[in-house]
Amino acid sequence: MGSGVNVQSRTMSDAKLKRNTLIGLGSGLLLAGTKLAAGIFGHSSALVADAVESLADSVGSIIVLQGLRMASKPADERHPYGYGKAEALAALIVGILLLLAACGIVYGAFQEILTPHSAPEAWTLWVLIAVIAVKETLFRLIHKGAEEADSDAARADAWHHRSDAITSGAALIGVATAIYGPSRFGIDQLVLADEAAAMIASGLIVFTAVGIMKDPLNELLDRRQHRIESDVRRIASEVEGVVTIEKLIARKSGRVYHVDMHLHVAPTMSVQDAHALGGRVKAHVRANLPSVGGVLIHIEPADQGISSAQGS
Question: What is the assigned CATH class of domain 226-311?
């Protein structure tokens, strides 16, 4: 019963995450084209750099979508633990793409600084304002779904949109300064604020990328999941017949956790009863923790002193 509900819940989460990713992908491509055209015709290197970052967002969304599709595949003979780590791999690739986009933005801005040019067109500011509003909305939509489903890939996709909003915000400040700064303050060099904003935005993108890559990297390296371990230990201890739990290790694979535990039972318990107890513990854990997909239980005889104390 509990397992069926878990599968149905994960299926609904998969559909919602894929829908959100497709919305982000379509919006990202449209905004990238808009910013690229506005940057070229409005003479703004910050907008062109922002468009490049948006294109990286779109590529990232495609990677996330493929990661979600692969992660949703059921376990098979070749992959008995399922394909969940495809999400972590997709999130890691998205982070790397962000780093590459940041390097490209810095290079393009540096080239513009070396080339004399006029200030951007004033109407480009309205394009940036619209982009910031749309990207922040996409971040909130996708991040909410990612948190509900505990998906690292979807989180990475969401932060991709937030990073785009950040770069657009930096571009807005830079473009406004480049347009109005020279005449207001009498400093012709302020026309370079457009490029300076692009460089500052690239630093923020690097910071975001490092944050995105942290959790997926830990998952791929099978880092212990202390929070879920604590919950599993508490819930497993509720089952009658469990004397104590010695070792308990949990690791994450996509949105599912796999748990290994050593149960100590009364040394006089028969093999058949111990096996049945292990089944009850597994069912109890999975019924109370929908995110737990697999539970591997090793039965051990409890120390006679501990067993006697539990029995009294």
Answer: alpha beta
